[in-house]
């Protein structure tokens, strides 16, 4: 019977390698998940997106003409609210 090569711990070379690989595989399975201990940040973002997303069957609130005209006039008014467009100082 041929003599087997032994490694550091007195185990045959193949078993030593198998022990290292098994240890690494098991350590990878037990490792904690990154961020598992953090609070669930981002849930508020998902909730807000869900509120703003139209789903088929949802009721669509109507936009009456008066309300639309008022909104457009508000956007067209200058920031100061004076009713005049800002003048340019360039020639």
UniProtKB/TrEMBL annotation:
Disordered, as annotated region: 72-91
Task: Identify the domain of life.
Answer: Bacteria
Name of this protein: Lipoprotein
Source organism (scientific name): Halomonas kalidii
């Amino acid at each position: 019977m041929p003599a087997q090569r032994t490694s550091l711990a007195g185990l045959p070379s193949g078993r030593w390698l198998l022990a290292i690989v098994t240890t690494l595989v098991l350590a990878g399975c037990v490792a904690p998940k990154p961020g598992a201990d953090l609070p669930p940040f981002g849930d508020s973002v998902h909730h807000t997106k869900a509120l703003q997303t139209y789903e088929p069957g949802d009721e669509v609130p109507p936009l009456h003409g008066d309300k639309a005209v008022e909104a457009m006039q508000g956007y067209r008014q200058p920031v100061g609210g004076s009713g005049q467009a800002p003048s340019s100082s360039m020639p």
